[in-house]
Automatic annotation (TrEMBL):
The active site is at residues 84, 145. One of its GO terms (molecular function) is hydrolase activity. Residues 181-271 form the Peptidase M20 dimerisation domain. Keywords: Hydrolase, Metal-binding. This is Probable peptidase M20 family protein. PANTHER family: ACETYLORNITHINE DEACETYLASE (PTHR43808), BLL0789 PROTEIN (PTHR43808:SF9). The keyword Hydrolase applies. Pfam families: M20_dimer, Peptidase_M20. InterPro entries: Bact_exopeptidase_dim_dom (IPR036264), Pept_M20_glutamate_carboxypep (IPR017150), Peptidase_M20 (IPR002933), Peptidase_M20_dimer (IPR011650), Peptidase_M20A (IPR050072).
Amino acid sequence: MEKNWTSYFQQQLPEIIEELRTYVEMETPTHNKQAVDRLGSLIAERFRQLGCRVESLPQEQYGNQLRMEYGDGDEQILILGHFDTVKEVGTLAVEPCREENGRLYGPGTYDMKAGIVFSYFALRAMMEHNLSPKNKLVFFWNTDEEIGSVSSEMLIREEAKRSKYALVLEPAAGDGSLKTSRKGGGDFILKVTGRAAHAGNDHAKGVNAIAELAHHVLAIQSFTNYEAGTTLSVGTITGGSASNVVPDFAMTEIDVRIQSREESERITRLMSQLTPVHPEAKLFVEGGITKPPMERTAGTEKLFLHAQEQARLESFELTEQGVGGTSDGNFAADAGTPTLDGLGPVGDGAHASHEHIVIDAIPGRIAVMLRMFLTLS
Ligand SMILES: [Zn+2]
């Protein structure tokens, strides 16, 4: 392992960028199955050429999920990524894939087509050098991560349960840090019904749903506990029809983020225990916490230290960070599998028009990925 893989991949940089450009120029919004499947077929073909055993798992509504195996070994390491994006077909016309100031811009470059392309070049280097991983590598590329992995969550959980570790090739944090914890979260909806009445003639007969909701808005906000990493944000509020009508309906949508299982349970309990202040008002709580938190376990720490060691062999320093946003790493971690996230590109602007990756950082990231694939046991 004396080889400096960074300089090896440095030489391949033009080819790596070209390959990524091919991926990016095939737009893949989650809801466009046909478009997503087109790139899926290309990815399947590419990895098959490297000797991967590729399985396409058919989906009716979203793009087919891809599961691919590389190498042998009794135990498996799961590598997660997605190739759907949030941008509609046609975005490329206004946000073309382009190189500028040492960055490669384009929808899906950072989140997260680069991660998949990096793994391809890592595998290819392995093949060209006759190196084999200590464990079987199982790649799972899904197609609906951007909408919460509705059709792939169970598949990811099952695959994670079978795996010794999970590596997520989502982008790194802004400074290149790997992601060792992620908050979990979800959305609650609180609907309130009251009784309509004429605001002038029958004020006393009405049950004002907005007034009722107001009590709960403040209560819900107060469930926030910054120290525990828990936030609740009342994000929208609607209700009523006209100023002279006592409103019989009001509702609010609430964004929830939590950092631990206990907090997830606490919030779920508190939300279910909301009771009407006005005896004739009714409350309906919908939604809930759908993404479990990815906690920084001892297993995660061990994985991170291993990655850090691999980076040192390539003469650079890797750091770690806990982040607020979620990924499929949350599901893998919730299945009990030590999970390390953010192994993909360095860059910025996920889901935004300035989405890009830093070209200089590419060789080092692939080098660490390759070393992880080879040495994790
Ligand atoms: Zn992503």
